[in-house]
Design a protein that fits this description.
Keywords (chain B): Membrane, Transmembrane, Transmembrane helix
Oligomer: heterodimer
Largest sheet of chain A: none
Number of domains of chain A: 1
Helix content of chain B: 55-70%
Protein name (chain B): CbtB-domain containing protein
Number of helices of chain A: 7
Distance between the termini of chain B: 56 Å
Number of strands of chain B: 0
Strand content of chain A: under 5%
Pfam families (chain B): CbtB
Shape of chain B: elongated
Radius of gyration of chain B: 18 Å
Order of helices and strands of chain A: HHHHHHH
Order of helices and strands of chain B: HHH
Shape of chain A: globular
Chain lengths: 250, 61
C-alpha cells in the first residue's frame, strides 16, 4: 500500500505540473505575440532611430584610426536587419511573457489566491509596479547609445528591486498585521535608499526627445505586457475550470 | 447551472501540497525563461533579445 502511494505521487505531480505549464504557455504566448506586434510599431522604430545616432557617434569617435583589435574575435550571430530581427524580438518577447505567466500563476497558487481574469490582471498590475515602475525610478528605460553603470550591478539592483517591491506590495495589500505592513513599506523604499548604479555622466548619443519618447513607450509596453499576461492567465484558467465542471457533471 | 468558483485543488484534482510543489517547479521554470530572455550574457541570447530587452526595461549593454 505504501508502495502504491509512493508510485502514485510522482505521476500526479507530473500531471499537475503539466497542466500548469499548459496554462502558462498558452497565456504567455497570447500576451507575448500581442505585445510583440505593439513593439513593432512603438519601441522598435525608436531603437532603430537611436542606433543611427549611435553608429554615427562611434564612427566619428573612431575617426581614421585602425581599430582592428575590436574585430579580431569572430563576431557572434546576430539577426539580420528586417524580418529576421523582428522575428528574434518577437520570440524573445514571447519567451519573457511565458516566463512572466509561469511566475504569476505560481505566485497566485502559492498564496492561495482565487485565479480569475480580473484578479489575475490586478496581480499583473502589481507585477508591473515591481518590475516596471520601481525599477524605472532608478534605471530609466534606455535607448542604445546611452551611458550606463556596470551591467552586472544594474541587473542585480533590478532583480533586487523587483523582488523587494513585489514582496512589499504583497505585505501591504494582503497581510493584516500592521507590523508586517510597515515592513512591506520599508521593503518598497529600501532599493531607492540604496540607489541604482549610475553612469559617471548622464550622456547619450540619441537626442533627449527620442530618449523621452522611448522611456514613455517602454513603460506603456511593460504595463500592457503584465496586464495582458495576468488577464490571459485568468481566462485560460477559467476555461480549464469550466472544462473540469463539465467533466464532473457528465 | 452553477457559477460557483472551483478551487485550484478541484480544478487540478490534486492536494494542496501537490499544487504547492508544482507551483514551485513552474516558478523556477518561469524565472529561468525570464533570465534567458532578459539577463543572459550569452552573445546569441543577447543579440537575439536585444530590442526586446530594451523595450521591456531590462538592463542592457
Amino acid at each position: 500500500m505504501i508502495r502504491a502511494i509512493r508510485s502514485a505521487s510522482p505521476a500526479t505531480d507530473a500531471a499537475v505540473i503539466q497542466r500548469l505549464l499548459a496554462v502558462g504557455l498558452l497565456a504567455g504566448l497570447l500576451a507575448g505575440l500581442a505585445v510583440a506586434a505593439l513593439q513593432n510599431v512603438t519601441t522598435t522604430p525608436l531603437i532603430l532611430a537611436a542606433e543611427v545616432y549611435e553608429t554615427a557617434a562611434e564612427q566619428a569617435h573612431a575617426g581614421g584610426e585602425a581599430h582592428q583589435h575590436e574585430h579580431a574575435a569572430e563576431p557572434a550571430w546576430e539577426p539580420a536587419p528586417g524580418l529576421q530581427r523582428t522575428a528574434a524580438t518577437s520570440v524573445a518577447t514571447s519567451v519573457t511573457a511565458v516566463g512572466y505567466a509561469f511566475v504569476l500563476l505560481a505566485l497566485m497558487l502559492l498564496s492561495g489566491e482565487t485565479i480569475e481574469p480580473k484578479r489575475a490582471a490586478l496581480w499583473g498590475a502589481c507585477a508591473f509596479a515591481s518590475t516596471g515602475l520601481a525599477t524605472s525610478l532608478g534605471l530609466a528605460p534606455e535607448l542604445p547609445g546611452s551611458a550606463a553603470g556596470d551591467l552586472a550591478a544594474r541587473q542585480l539592483w533590478w532583480i533586487g528591486t523587483a523582488a523587494a517591491t513585489g514582496a512589499g506590495l504583497f505585505a501591504v495589500l494582503r497581510v493584516e498585521r500592521p507590523l508586517v505592513k510597515a515592513l512591506g513599506a520599508a521593503l518598497i523604499l529600501a532599493p531607492h535608499l540604496i540607489g541604482a548604479p549610475q553612469p559617471p555622466a548622464p550622456e547619450s548619443t540619441a537626442p533627449a526627445e527620442l530618449a523621452a519618447r522611448f522611456a514613455a513607450a517602454s513603460l506603456a509596453i511593460h504595463a500592457i505586457t503584465w496586464i495582458l499576461v495576468g488577464a490571459a492567465v485568468g481566462f485560460v484558467w477559467r476555461h480549464l475550470s469550466t472544462k473540469t465542471s463539465a467533466e464532473a457533471a457528465a | 447551472m452553477t457559477t460557483k468558483t472551483l478551487s485550484a485543488a478541484a480544478i487540478l484534482s490534486a492536494s494542496r501540497l501537490e499544487i504547492l510543489r508544482a507551483a514551485l517547479v513552474v516558478f523556477t521554470l518561469g524565472a529561468g525563461l525570464v533570465y534567458l530572455a532578459g539577463f543572459s550574457y550569452a552573445s546569441v541570447a543577447h543579440n537575439a533579445a536585444h530590442d526586446s530587452r530594451h523595450s521591456l526595461g531590462f538592463p542592457c549593454h
